[in-house]
Design a protein that fits this description.
- The chain has about 120 residues and is mainly α.
- It has four helices and no strands.
- It is elongated and about 50 Å long.
């Protein structure tokens, strides 16, 4: 049973790393190709995601980093949704793909955070 749990946790962590890298690369591509005036913002978002992938792959402060990535993904997703509805910017296939990966990433981080939290001893 414990061995199966460890395998699931490894799978969740490495899936999270892959999703972070994919989102980071999409953001860098979007900043280079589509963003126009906001290209620096997309470069920063992509850089943060790639840095987070390195931190999670190294398993540095896992509870803090997983929760931070979860909150960051939800923040960027909600910011995009409100901005896209108001201005119409960011309503293209690349932005949709980026936000779909971010949604899956947020779910992955929530599952990983929940699975790795320390158990309470009474």
């Amino acid at each position: 049973m414990a061995r199966r749990l460890i395998e699931i946790l490894k799978w969740l962590r490495w899936t999270g790393v892959a999703l972070l890298l994919v989102t980071g690369i999409i953001d860098l591509y979007y900043g280079n190709s589509y963003a126009g005036f906001y290209e620096n913002l997309w470069y920063v978002m992509g850089g943060i995601y790639i840095f987070a992938a390195i931190v999670i792959a190294a398993n540095i402060e896992p509870h803090f980093s997983q929760l931070t990535v979860f909150a960051y993904a939800l923040f960027l997703w909600s910011l995009w949704a409100t901005t896209a509805l108001e201005t119409g910017a960011g309503l293209d296939a690349v932005a949709y793909a980026d936000k779909a990966v971010e949604a899956v990433l947020a779910i992955n981080m929530a599952l990983l955070f929940r699975s790795t939290r320390p158990s309470k001893i009474m």
